[in-house]
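so my prof wants the structure for this chain in the C-alpha cells format not the other one, which i didnt know existed until like an hour ago. anyway here's the sequence
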Amino acid sequence: MTPERKERLLSVLNKRQANLTVVLEDVQDPHNVAAVMRTCDAVGIQDIYIITSKPPRIKNWGHRSSSSAKQWLTIHDFDNAADCFKELRKHYDKILTTHLSADAVSLYDIDFSGSVALVFGNEQNGVSDHVRSMADGNFIIPQMGIIRSLNISVACAVSIYEAMRQKTLAGHYQQQGLPDAQYNTLLTEWGFKAEDLQEDEI
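here's what i got, hopefully its the right format
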C-alpha cells in the first residue's frame, strides 16, 4: 500500500461517527438503498441497519449507485424489526422515524450532538406503524411545495447532511469517533481491501 493510499484511508476512518446511523425499513428499490449507502459514506456514517421483512430479500444492492460504498460500510441486516430495535437500543440514545404527524419535530430541531438513529420507510407506505410504535418520535423535513414527500434517498441525504453540519460545528470530525475496538478492526479490514483495489476506486 502506498503512503498516499494509507493516508487517505486513515483520514476517512478518523472521521467515521459511531453516534449517528440510518435505518431502512423494507426499501424495495436496490438503487435507493445503494444511493443511501453512498451518502452515508460521504458524511462519515459507518453502521447502517436494514430491515427487510417483506419478500424479496435483496442482498445485492445497486453496485453502480453505491459506487462501491457498501464495501466500506458495516451493514446490519435484519428480517425482524423488533430484533433490529433491540440492537439499536444498545448503541443509540434516540430513534426517530420520518413520518408526517401532528407531533413530528422539524429535522432542524433535532440535536445531532447526541446519539441518534434515523429511520426511513419504503417508497410506497413510509415507516410502518409497528416500527413507529417502537421509536422515540417522528421528524419531518420542512418543505414549501405542494407535494409533501421526497424520494427516500433524497430525504436521507438532506437529513444526514444536516446531521453532518451540526456535528462539524460541534467538532465531532476533529477526533476519533469510533470505539477503539471497531476502529482497529476496520483499519485491518480496509488495509486488506485497499490492496485489491485500483487507485481510482478509493
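also thought this was worth mentioning. The chain has one domain: 18-192.
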